[in-house]
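Section 5.1 Outputs to date
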Amino acid sequence: MSKEQPGAPRPAPHGTEHGPPEARNADPRAKGGADEESALAVVLARLDHTNDLLRRMVAEVAKTPATHAIFVDAGYVYAAAGRLVAGTEDRRAFDLDAEGLIEALIDRARTIFADSRLLRVYWYDGARRRIHTTEQQSIAELPDVKVRLGNLNANNQQKGVDSLIRSDLESLARHRAISDAALIGGDEDLVSAVEAAQGYGARVHLWGVEAPEGRNQAEPLLWEVDSQRVFDLEFFKPYVSRRTVVPHDQPNVPRPTREQMRFAGAQIAAQWLPARGRDALAELLPGHPYLPGSVDQDLLVEAERLLQYSLRGQSDLRRSLREGFWEHLRTLY
């Protein structure tokens, strides 16, 4: 076994790296500090990128014009405006100029939302089996108007309208299609629709019809909306008019003959067919000689207007009216 020569350098301890003294004496924490600085630089770069994206998004939103839509619960409007102007909620007792009213609402919205553009007007109503009446179809044909139908039960009560309003309000707000919603209605069930739209950042403004006494809008609904506005008698008066139907027992008013009723039915059918089209007729034909409730009601109301004579309680005249209606349609197809 050899001995170490005097003066010879001793070997480095096991595990000790060769190198200059400054490398051997370097603090290992220095390398960790450099890694932390590098990671911090990456985070800061990402923050700068995110902030830049946010700035661009805000600038883009600022350039996007505000958009509003009008949501009309037709059942509420008919009932409230009918009571205010005609003194009754019975639709059969008065006429509502829906086209004129919609135009007036659009003009009013244009004034209130001065820096906003109209998306469209949503008109919510009820119909039996969700089949458009002649009046509802004419409303649906108006520009910038979409008719959405719920159902009518045996008591002529709307079903499903509130859920349609909520669905549209929530969807449009979620997709940022509207910034403001003018809601014309009064039912407490609309509270959930308001909350859903507000949850996505839309502002909901409740519009109402002046009540002759008390209120015709639920208080919880009034509490939830962003603003409230009520239109008075003068606003609705041009669009609501009482029907002048002569009672059948009024003296000196001749009772229509069977042939006159058949002729009136044919006249109404001649107007109904072009408005509704072949598809609507195809739905009617299998049910002959019966008419769907909504069509029968429209036929009755139009005949009373045409003849200026009440057909309430006169089953024989109404039967002749239906016969004339059917005969005209069946001679064409």
